[in-house]
Fold each of these.
Amino acid sequence: MITAAELEHLAKLARIDLSEDDKKSLAKEFDSILGYIDQLKKADVKMDAEGRVGAIKNVTRPDEAVKISTEDRELLLNEAPDREGDFIAVKKIISQD
Amino acid sequence: MKIDITNLTIKKAHESLKRGDFTAVELTRSYLNEIAAKNKEVHAYLEVFDDALEAAKKADETMGEARSKNKDFPLLCGIPFAIKDNILIKGKTASSASKILEHYKATYYATAALRLAQEGAVFLGRTNMDEFAMGGSTENSAYGPTKNPHDLSRVPGGTSGGSAAAVAANMALVALGSDTGGSIRQPASFCGVVGLKPTYGAVSRYGLMAAVSSFDQIGPIAKTVEDAEIVFNVIHGKDIKDGTTITEERVSTTYSLKRVGKKKPVIGIPRLFLSMGGIDPSVKSAFEAAEKRFKDLGYEIKDIELPANKYALSVYYILNFAEVSSNMARYDGVKYGLHMDGKDGIDDYFKTRRGGLGREVIRRILLGTYVLSSGYYDAYYNRANAVRRMITEDFLKAFDSSGGGVDLIATPTTPGPAFKIGEKSNDPMAMYLEDIFTVTANLTGLPAMSIPCGALPLPLGLQLTARHGDEKTLFEAGKDFLGELE
């Protein structure tokens, strides 16, 4: 049975606020779902097998900045909830005490 | 003028547009009228685009120009489409049926949508879905469920429920959906229409809001296999903006050409897997009838084994939770979408995400965080990837032509018909079990299509899976089964 403390830890990692009620219902659901997926422990599997899909390999390209049009730039910046000129504003995350 | 949209297909519409039986504006208006009459009840669309008629007018102009030069115009010119709410259309709202993107306007086109638009397709509106493509019934939409047009007390399936319902109810001629674990095929099955999940990499995911990056594919939902094929032919292809797309050579007719002469594809049925229980009797009998129909059409049926399939759902959900938890991190109220204030910068995230994301999304993010966390990563995520490879190898073995393999694998699409609204919404595990036949195509990357095979009032689907890149065999067998080759 997953504990409230464990759920709080996960919520912290995932940056999601959870109420006490949330934690109660989630604990039940976690148990039901983890109970099912735990079946996987029975699988007789070679753990060194690579987890590839089909015949896919990594494809790379140079990490280069691309110029976009002023219009597109405006569209992107306009979607930000808190825009200041050419910047997106965010609150401080490091306190100064 | 009254156009009979009930019996239209893309080719029929195209011929009529060519002959001048009706214009693209008249065609789009017919669908808009149908939407006005039915959408309040069915709730397939979250938004009907106010420029649909304008787009139809442009299509008429394109056709007029082509006619004056004695040239042909594209098959999709003037054809009315419904587009799932997680596929970006520049300038239009795209919310993935979530509150966190309620007012987000797409700043670019999804490649698949752009390719349709370039052919002159008309976008009627954006369709309802389970929030962020997590669910199996469209009940997880933050904007209310969609109803199954065949029975309004039942779900249309999910997560592309709105798209499937729109096509089934003649509120669009064809639709785009997305499929992560069956999200095109299962609603197609519940709504009695055709749904294709292409080979992984066949269709660009650029502009599709990512759910599970190694599973997701955009695909068509249509009334006929031919219509699905026409749309697939336009939207697939290598895209420089999506590094996981495969080249034309990999999505080809190679495999069907390997077949000697005009012999029909061999169909494999995983008997043991099907006998696992939990399958509705109506599905069993519809599947037996479908098997008989294939035999009557001259297909050889072989029994096959897919031993690792019993772990498919566990593998699927572990990887789903893991990748979802990573992909959902971007919804933090900073660059776009809903922002809710907390006491500082980090608390903003906590409040925004709790405020804007639905229950199922939060559940999966937390489960994903769990299976990826230190101490559990090896037992869950790494193990799931290794078993994913085992499952894929089972399929490749079944398809191995050198070893007397089959060309298609047939199963029911779903273990039962459309369930009642509310029936499974309180039990996440019961909802997950609905995916039992569809997840393997996403795990393996193989193309799979659902075609209608049950009698009304409740439609059922037959699922065919083919080799990587072999959509052509899916189309051939599907058209044969549905009598489209006559």
Note: The helical segments of chain A are 4-14, 20-37, 70-78.
Amino acid sequence: MTTVNRLILQNGRLLDPVTGVDEKGDLWVEDGVIVPAQKEIPENSEVYDVHGQWIVPGLIDMHVHLREPGEEYKETIKSGTRAAAAGGFTAVACMPNTTPVNDCASVTQYIINAATREGSARVYPVGAISKGSKGAGLAEYGELKQAGAVAVSDDGLPVLDSQLMRRAMQYAGSHDLLVISHSEEMALSRNGSMNEGVVSTRLGLRGIPAAAEAIMVYREIALAELTGQRIHIAHVSTGAAAELIAQAKARGVRVTAETAPHYFTLTDEAVGDYNTNTKMNPPLRTEKDRQAIRKGLQDGTLDAIATDHAPHSVLEKELEFDRAANGVIGLETSLSLSLALVRDGVIGALRMVELMSSAPARILQVEGGTIAQGNVADITVIDPEKRYVFTEDSILSKGKNSPFLDWELQGKAVLTVVGGRITHNELT
Amino acid sequence: MRVSIKNVKEAYQFKHKHILGIEQLSVADIFHILDTAISFKEISSRSIKKVPTLKGKTIINFFFEPSTRTRLSFEIAAKRMSADTFNIAASTSSATKGETLIDTARNLQAMNPDTIIVRHGSSGAPGLLARHVEASIINAGDGTHEHPSQALLDMMTVREHRGTVEGLKIAIVGDIAHSRVAHSDILGFTKLGAEVRVAGPETFMVPGLDALGARVCGSVVEAVTDADVVMALRIQRERQDDPLIPSLREYSQFYGINHNLLQKHSRPDVLVMHPGPINRGVEMNPDVADGKGSVILEQVTNGVAVRMALLYLVMGREGGRG
């Protein structure tokens, strides 16, 4: 990692969903800020010819689990942000289900301090909705926000009490904090370990029906309508939920939503012979759902691509399928899998950058998401052609629990820059 | 090179190291197992019920769930073939001490068994074991996934009585969703060309039974009409986390198999089966369980023969471990 005064990227394809720019050109960075190009290249400039590559605003993953504090054997802020940088991410929002739960200013402060000290990406802590994420009583949103939290969520655990969720939306609104919902009706999903359908029956595994997601998504929409507040739906996995979100948006409800690469890439068939690296919550769904998710990314129903990066060790994964932990890593494969959507003609390049950068910045109300002059120099350079095999040895995250192990992928971040500082560099 | 059908048949070789489910077995495999079982069945009727076939082999019965008859059936099968058998039940194993299944498997492997017979509450657990040990694994029931030896003994019993399984109508009534027996029977009987019908209240059904090959019937009457075989499944007495039926009393009234039902709708020579143990008067009335068409105890007898065949085949494979 080197801090440079001046960084010059030449002959790239500049892509900026905020300004609508999609053109060939150069990008100049001085002291961490994007500046106008000059005629002469001054001395002491770090110059890269990125012909054939894309220069985009730094990617932002608004849904990751960094596991610190408390589960450092799975991931740390250091290792997680290293993985983020390698995946082209300049910022991540980390969920509060750590030990202790991030439900107070001191934990938020701890995360921010650790990220400042040893992080390779900006880290935006997400505070808990309820104290200890126990589903009763509000966490202190005012202090969380002051300490640096950008949103609140009890991710991993749905808020079962509708009145508590209503109050959370209202009180978060007063502090201009986003509420992120893990939408799951537990009575329907209890003891389930994969999507309920033909495959769960074949494997003899207890299923989680699509309705478990749709029911709770509808509740969140109804509460957003009741309170007039914002709600963000995490990891949408079903066509049914996407349809509810589309209808709500059409009515003017302040709802945004994200999905994850595994939901638009895989189906429940991927569980195969009880592969625990395909176990996550919500689970992989059917082909019909996968198509609906892709359509939602295309038509604007879904606003963002987030990974739900959830590192686990072999202790949680080399187990019987129904006893294995939920979650897969995603930071180092998200861009390649999203680029496949562009190659497949599902979305254009600008839309992909919007889903992975501009939209998360807008939803979280954080800097970045644009490469217009005067903005902070959070930049990702993407080689859309680069092919590689995603092997376990290459993974920088401490978690190796990916359903895409040994996949041949195409398209990769080759340079990641955070505030002018290079955090990942495959250019030579 | 031209190969005649006859030559192909002669060239057949049983090549499975593990018996994880009916799903993995071809029609030829199933017939080979059943034919082998028939040849072993006679041993159990001798006065000296022992052959030296598996002398010196070590077999571990590894049961994470309580079981009386399946465990005993495997043990008798092993002992009649002179293998040394050892039983581990979940309560006495390391499972309760926090050891993972893979660690337990590796420890068992270190004692060099030839075959491990596993029953486990988690679907897929025998397959997980198979990936981590050298020994052959025989699935004695995993979660709600498969119970292959039970399905094989069911097929053997039906075949003995009818000569063939092809074209028969087999009705299975009960909690299909949570039954590994039903799952394996659906796969096995349909592979052999039978029509398998399943029936029970909708709470006992799951999506995808048709994809397994079953015909899902709207009523018990529909399922048993013209049936050659009627099988009732044991109803779990308690299932507090998920209420599936209001009471056993009501279940028996609407879904219990009784003499009148079969006499009215099924073939006169209908075979009555049950994987046991029976809740008498709940899923099956005594007039049927003890009636002339009942082959429930033959199922138990055939269970020993089928398990002898499985043990012989996985350990006696040509080119197998020395």
Note: Chain A has two domains: 6-54+375-425, 58-364.
Amino acid sequence: MGAINLDKITKTYAKSGSPAVDNISFDVSKGELFGLIGPDGAGKTSIFRILTTLLLSDSGTASVDGHDVVKDYEIIRKIVGYMPGRFSLYQDLTVEENLNFFATLFGGTVKDNYDLIKDIYVQIEPFKKRMAGKLSGGMKQKLALSCALIHKPSVLFLDEPTTGVDAVSRKDFWEMLNRLKNQGITIMVSTPYMDEASLCDRIALIQSGKILIIDTPDQIRKAYPDKLYVIKSVNMHQLINDLNEYPHTLSCFPFGEYLHVSFKIDEENLIPDVLKYLASKGHENPEIKLTFPTVEDYFIKLINPK
Amino acid sequence: MDEPVIKTDKLTKRFGEFIAANELTFSVFPGEIFGFLGANGAGKTTAMRMLCGLSIPSSGTASIAGFDVYKQVEKIKQNIGYMSQKFSLYEDLTVMENIKFYAGVYGLSDKEIKDSSEELIKQLGLQKETKKLVKDLPLGWRQKLSFSVALVHKPKIIFLDEPTGGVDPVTRRQFWNLIYAASAKGITVFVTTHYMDEAEYCSRVSIMVDGYIKALDTPANLKKQFSVDTIDKVFFELARNAKRTGD
């Protein structure tokens, strides 16, 4: 039995018509760090709310640690930790009071499981007398994680914990997640940042309520069907326009300082022909070489209609 | 070189003892795409508020589109556009109502409102959606619309505060095409983002740490200066020792 099972879960909100979660099935193993990767509106939050027993699905079944999300909701609420996307602690309680409150709710004390949160909590402990509402974004995030962990959940649900967080704090946060994972906690985490996908054991790419693919980040990168090139020249904006007009271009998207480009054909003289074409458009000595696709490349491939 | 459209000299904002933005000195030129990066709490929002005429500096000087940040804040507001992912359009108004509302707020005449809204709808290919409520539009379209609405009064500068948060990777890149197009028309784009790959698309990038601008150059020069191959690594080098972690 996995830590999380979903079987044909569908959820439609009355008015909008198209389902927010559309016949989704997947399993997460015990101790796995599983990522739901997709943009706003993909259905990530609905899945979290169904699994944490806060929302009923229209059809399908789901379980957490073997307990049914409908029948056994009371058990599930005791064994999961949930950090919603919106800050949901008591703003007018202090840091310390929030933590004590959540520990007491689950019938324990902060001391019982202090080991689990120690690494995270020491960073906000100097501010323990401060109202939670007065904390900075990064500190709120650490307090929310501490509160979600204080009853030692067996499964931890984190809905976009790093959205709007700067690149350095995001790295720190993922290191914390890996330490928790090493203590045997199953973690399901969602993010709109594709670069965080590679830090999960397995990921589901999700868009418009449907799962596009589920696999390890490495397998997903290997499954990319086309040869992928990076191309760069002095005038990048012009380069995008020119490559989009080149008849053999299959897809062309900026990735940092390079463009990632794939072509419809794979012939020996392809690259010389590309270079000749770019020279005719006035690009001097463009750089072109093969590259290994990222998870984001695959996501683009899956959602780009071309 | 052209006259700068944003020019600051030792621009500073204090809140009591706390110096949120410390002696910021920089210039941005017409048509530039200027990436304004920094860790949470570094002082970006405070700096942006001063540049938009929403917060009076404690000391230093700044001129925005030729207007003084102390004495001509209303002039500044008329000559800039602003868009943020968190707030830009009224969800309970239709596409057309939003355009007309913003054009009206910026004091365009009835004829100008009519012409510019028609032009904008055509540009975005939203002819069939003009009577739809904004909340019923897909996020990607909403974003393109709010970007265009922020340009409806033909400002010299547009400020974009994390414009691409939460959108899918294709929409995010299409959004940058709009940015490039605006820049090609001579509009200055001042943009904040947490996506480090987007920093590479900027003409120049500044990185704020603990209230100071710690680095400012083209992405290529910054990478050279720090001997690394991505802006992500430059950012990490500068921001990992930040003392502030606020917002």
Note: The mean pLDDT of chain A is 93.
Amino acid sequence: MRSFSNTYIFVFSLIMVTIVAVLLSFVSMSLKPRQLLNIETEKKDNILTTVGVTGEASGVDKNTFISDEFKKYITDSYCVDFNGDKLDADAFEVTLNLEEELRKPREERNYPLFVYTGDDGTKRYVVPVRGRGLWGPIWGYIALESDLNTIAGTVFDHEGETPGLGAQIATVEFEKQFDGKTIFNTEGQFVSVEVVKGGADPSDKHGVDAISGGTITSKGLQAMLMDCLGGYVAYFKELANN
Amino acid sequence: MSIEKEPLFSVKNLKLISEPLGQSNPITVQVLGICSALAITVKLKPSIVMALSVMAVLAVSNVVISLLRKMIPPRIRIIVELVVIATMVIMVDQVLKAYAYDISKQLSVFVGLIITNCILMGRLEAFAMGNKPWPSFLDALGNAAGYGIILIIVAFFRELLGSGTLLDMRVIPQAVYDAGYMDNGMMVLPPMALVVVGIIIWIQRSRRKNLIED
């Protein structure tokens, strides 16, 4: 076996990592726009799913299809602040960067809101939420009926929860449990929806079953709802009174 | 210098492709790459994409390492192999994210984990470091195909029996369900992949006695 000097090894390594770095930066830069488009499409698709718009793209590209559906059904989108006042910020932009938004104190955050108008004129309000699971971020979208109290639909997703345990939050069975639950109690106080270990009573309007073996993810989801939905309370009350 | 040139598809070269499909199959005989084989074989489509990804990564890495084999200092060869594999895997991952986003989400972490798939390091270390580029390329195709074919067989049975579909199309007619048939939920879980792989190994060994160890 030939022996190589230390200098050779150093030079070889240097050249190797430089080539690899240039190559990977190039690939990453050139594919970035398409990847971002995919992420946007996914978010739009999720928002549409919560309000019950689920269609398959036939004949056209999925990105165009979802984008068209989104324009058609999401008739308004804006941000509100903690005190319930409307803001100028673009709701979708804020949703894309929700992680950074949540680092701000609650009073300074922009709270994005999407308004859906169905073919029959029914209105629903979709709120993006984001929080922490066991291994990484979890996020989702909550659609509320026009009474701004009853949940019409939810979509949850996660980055790396354990398959079969925490990852169950992203299943239809789990998401369906939220339908018809309410986030305000009969006195009009904000109580959010709790994730109950051992199973929630079916008559409980503010509780759903937690996931066995996914306690930390379940708790994280509950905290996420409390934290994110909580910021809309002032605005919801105002809107419901008008 | 008149060394007779070996034809591109000599018997010896063809063996590089055919052997890993059968008697030196990376999964059933060498028992490498089992982790991903269990995790992503719930449905056919991700399995096919995974098999193709491994093939692309292995083919390019094998050729690159084979071309560089005389320049790579032996002391850092494992690091060099790892860098080449990792670069390829990241590229495949980025391409999937851009052009097959849904599948890339299903495969999630397992595309990244191709880096740790023992088949890759195994082939680079055992074959590409000591052979010319063309045989290395064939060796890569053979081994990736051997890996892929097991993935596809396992996924075929798991999707058919577990979800009643193939490539997401319903193949078991509704009438059968009406008659009381149910999808086997067990097939969707990873342990059943192990059982299916076990059955494949059993069938293979009962037909090729020379594979049986004491």
Note: The first strand of chain B starts at residue 165 and ends at 166.
